[in-house]
Design goal:
The chain is mainly α. It has 2 domains: 203 residues, no CATH class; 56 residues, Alpha-Beta Plaits (2-Layer Sandwich), CATH 3.30.70. It has 16 helices and 2 strands. Strands 1-2 form a two-stranded antiparallel ribbon. The relative contact order is 0.14.
Length: 275
């Protein structure tokens, strides 16, 4: 599912051959996960980038269409987007499979999740604050932090179009360093970008318990043994909470079968005696 999501989001084959961005009508819509607009294969826009772009320039506009799409994605899938659909999540999962020592979960890692609030502020209002300060808004998160822009956008474009190296400067070096540190961390730390830096996860996590799809725990059956938290590779304290990406690892670990994938109509089926 992750691979399929990445292919669908980056299915512009001519772009991978020529280094030219797709600029058709699909680019007006956002994909659910983090996927750089400047990726040569990108068919849709990144929601974080689209939000900042609307708030940038000399005439910032509040991007209601981006907020509407994000709300739709959140109410449908919650953080299942992170675990099942996000192309950058796929990159992190693949690198974590490398045969190197794993760091596991540490208390300081959960403390680092608070950094995401700063990233949310940077992505959410940073462009507008730059407009107030300098008269021109700037997508600060995309420009200085987001590693997807470097991995999916800058590096492929420079590989396909060597003349773009002439435009590379200190910012490219900085973003390359940020990406290098994160890629190295991904091999031993599970999804460090999701857990510590991604502003999207806070939005999706807020709606996680209300989403139509995703992992959920039946409170009537739950004995609060903590086994779901023990096997969770993220920072969830209970299946389905704001940190849960619905990977499903907790289903077999639950001793009372209290955890399941919820789906629309499931409650009605159970009330009628069905499975």
């Amino acid at each position: 599912m992750q691979a399929l999501g990445a292919v669908l989001a980056n299915g512009n084959l001519p772009g991978w051959l020529t280094g030219r961005l797709y600029r058709g009508p699909l680019k007006a819509a956002c994909v659910p996960g983090l996927n750089c607009y400047s990726c040569p294969g990108a068919l849709g826009a990144c929601p974080v980038g689209s939000w900042q772009s609307a708030m940038s320039g000399v005439a910032p506009k509040f991007p209601l269409y981006v907020l509407g799409l994000l709300l739709l994605f959140a109410l449908a899938f919650g953080r299942m987007v992170c675990g099942w659909l996000c192309p950058f999540g796929l990159v992190q999962d693949l690198l974590h499979r490398l045969p190197v020592p794993k760091a596991g979960k540490k208390p300081w890692m959960r403390a680092l999740t608070r950094v995401r609030w700063a990233m949310l502020a940077l992505a959410g209002v940073g462009a507008y604050l730059a407009y107030l300060a300098a008269g021109t808004g700037k997508p600060l998160f995309c420009a200085y932090v987001c590693p997807a822009g470097m991995l999916e956008g800058a590096l492929p474009l420079m590989a396909l179009r060597p003349e773009l190296f002439a435009a590379a400067g200190w910012l490219t070096v900085w973003k390359g360093a940020v990406l290098a540190v994160l890629l190295a961390a991904m091999a031993s730390v599970y999804r460090p970008f999701c857990r510590f830096l991604c502003p999207l996860v806070l939005w999706y996590g807020f709606w996680n318990r209300l989403a139509l799809f995703g992992v959920a725990a039946d409170e009537a059956r739950c004995v609060h043994c903590g086994r779901c938290a023990a096997v969770c590779p993220m920072d969830a304290k209970m299946a389905g909470d704001a940190h849960c990406i619905s990977c499903g690892r907790c289903l077999e670990a639950c001793p009372t079968a209290a955890i399941s994938f919820r789906r629309p109509g499931a409650e009605k089926i159970q009330e009628n005696g069905g499975d």
